[in-house]
Amino acid sequence: MHLGSIWFTLLSCAFFMGLVGWVSYQKTKGEVNDSTGYFLAGRGLTGGFIAGSLLLTNLSAEQLIGLNGQAYRTNLSNMAWEVTAAFAIVIMAIYLLPKYLGGSFTTLPEFLSTRFDEGVRRYTVILFMFGYIFVTIPSMLYSGALAVLQLFDIPNLLGISYVQSVWLVIWIIGIIGAIYAIFGGLKAVAVSDTINGIGLLIIGILVPVLGFVALGDGNLFDGMKTIATKNPEKLNGIGTNQDSVPIGTIFTGMIFANLFYWASNQYVIQRTLGAKSLAEGQKGVLISGFYKLLVPVFMMLPGVIAFHLYGDSLRTVDLAYPTLIANVLPTYLSGFFLAVLLGAVFSSFNSLLNSAATMFALDIYKTQVNPHASDKRLILVSKYFGSIVALITLFISPFLMQAPDGLWDLIRKFTGFFNIPIIAILLVGVFSKYVPSLAAKVVIFFHVIAYYLLVWGTNHLFNVTVDIHFIHIYAILFFIEVAMMLIIGKIKPRSTPYRFKAKATVNMTPWKYTLPTAIILLALVALTYIVFSPIGVAYQNGVVSPAFGYWIGALIIFTSILVHLSLKQWHKKYKMVIQKQNEKSINIVS
Fold this sequence. Notes:
Layout (H helix, E strand, L loop, with lengths): L2 H26 L6 H6 L6 H12 L2 H13 L6 H4 L1 H18 L5 H8 L2 H35 L1 H5 L3 H54 L4 H10 L23 H11 L2 H8 L4 H15 L2 H5 L1 H10 L9 H9 L2 H39 L5 H22 L10 H9 L3 H13 L5 H26 L7 H22 L22 H18 L16 H34 L1 H7 L1
Helix pairs in contact: 1-10, 1-18, 3-10, 3-13, 3-14, 3-18, 4-8, 4-16, 6-12, 6-14, 6-24, 7-8, 8-10, 8-17, 8-18, 8-19, 8-20, 8-22, 10-11, 10-16, 10-18, 10-19, 12-21, 12-23, 13-18, 14-24, 16-17, 18-19, 21-22, 21-23, 22-23, 24-25
């Protein structure tokens, strides 16, 4: 890229980012002066803003780089992480969100403190901080830096080494993102996410289209035919034991990993906790599930296209998407792409910093240090803490260059240290009345040690490899930990049973179309797996198999029956259950 193109890219990027910043400022003026405004957007987010923010918080450069890298290396089996999240999203929307909003909680640790005690609250915050600071935030920054480096060729441009370039870009991205998150609060993040989300959808459609055109020597359909007929196994989403995500893992540990992410991960659920009503929160959560189904097209097909274009010539698998972008995207769109890419990076980075700062201010500082802290003091403390977290992660991020099998697998393995114990404690806490806080504390310490031993420790310490996929280990430990908690609950139960106390500050009437929308979403998950399987486009002897039409027809009939039942019968019963659960708070918000 010559100097004139670079300046055009930078200026057009600055224009788009400035536009997003100006709109966000106009939408949030004077709304972050109290803690509810800063941490929960004044509990005024509508379904569209929640869905847009969830989309961009979740679909960051980590996915753009990581998932395309895995598709380039193997096939589409890694789509399971995204597509099967719909199951967790449905559970969140139908069951857990009414609990969170009904109890008027600000953070997940706060919810756990009411169910268990302050000790569980502190340990949960520590687990979250460990995951955010050492895994999630560094991965966001590093993956964004990779894409920027490939787009601009910083080493040659500035005459510095590749390693120095990675450090430089990470620090530039991190500092800009931190300023935005620390001073804007949740609503600024949600508004900017929604606008950037629209840009991400445009880019998500455009890149595979341009890739197909390049693969087909100028003909879109020739390119599509090429990936469907040459190496069709690359389009298979049904993973084998040789793939990083075997199909069996969908029914074991992945269920709980996705449940953690969509139902208990603070930086995701914080958007839903800021909903103006239960109905708006349910709309936002469920709409985000439909976005997830686009992931194989937006964030994996480009990796398959890159395989067909470049073979195995790339230095690392994580360069598949950046290389394709550099080669097929017109110069006049490079600034727009860079703005969207940085918007995605900033979104996830901002969201994580905002959530980390929220938990520290409300779950540690206010409960342990200064119980009478004013809103102004809480916001100030959260900004200081967010700055410290940002600084630490800027030093950690560049070391992800050492990941041998790509960024994606490394992140998923390290996430296992904190996702399973949190979701196990949450579910046992919700569904049991007598399990004490001791059980939750035992599980947290047990999990960290046991997970390390099973995934790495036995090999490091005893030179013995545990030949079990790490996602299966998720499930094994989940069931062991749930059993441990229930046994402790039998031996040493709480003196008084836990009872959920409704104190909602928003309208708790559920969305009329929650159940039918959930059914359609789950049906589309099944459809996605039919399409990206040997029955569909991964069929070896043609574009799709002869059985493809029969499977689709059966799915449509079954889904139609369930949707009809949900509208005619199930919604009324569901509405009654939610109203009974929150009957004490209905008068407050009506």
